[in-house]
Amino acid sequence: MQDTTSTKPITELEFEQRVKNGEKLWILDDLVLDLSEYAEWHPGGRFLIDRTVGRDISKFFYGSYALDGNTGDPKVGNERHIHSNIARKSMQNTIVGTLVRN
Asked: Dihedral through CA 8, CA 17, CA 35, CA 60, nearest 10?
């Protein structure tokens, strides 16, 4: 997604504390994102963004999990969405740091 060598390192503890203090942050892979300004423009609706504050959204972003209607039954077709390259590039503008795992 982005060259993360120039982004601010954020520890898991710092991430959790910042979310507790009201910041709206997300994790995608090892990147920390601030999607708060993007939420109103999200094609899936603000609900999906607001519902996942403080979480690792990788499984949603890459389509391996659906927030709604995911029965877990492989025989049932789940409406999972895999984000486009445009979405991937859009995320570059929301990166506020790189997550440092404990």
From this structure: 100
**Region at 31 (left for phi over 0; alpha for psi -120 to 50; beta for the rest):** beta
**Do residues 48 and 79 touch, judged by C-beta distance below 8 A?**
no
> Digits of tens for pLDDT over the chain (102 positions)?
444 446 899 999 999 999 999 999 999 999 999 988 877 777 777 788 888 999 998 887 776 555 555 455 555 555 555 555 666 677 788 999 999 987
pTM, whole model, 2 decimals? 0.73
**What's the CA angle centered on 46, arms 28 and 67, to 5 degrees?**
60
Neighbouring CB atoms inside 10 A of 64's CB total 10
List of residues 6+ apart from 63 with CB closer than 8 A: 80, 81, 82, 83
What domains, with CATH codes, occur in the chain? 4-100 (3.10.120.10)
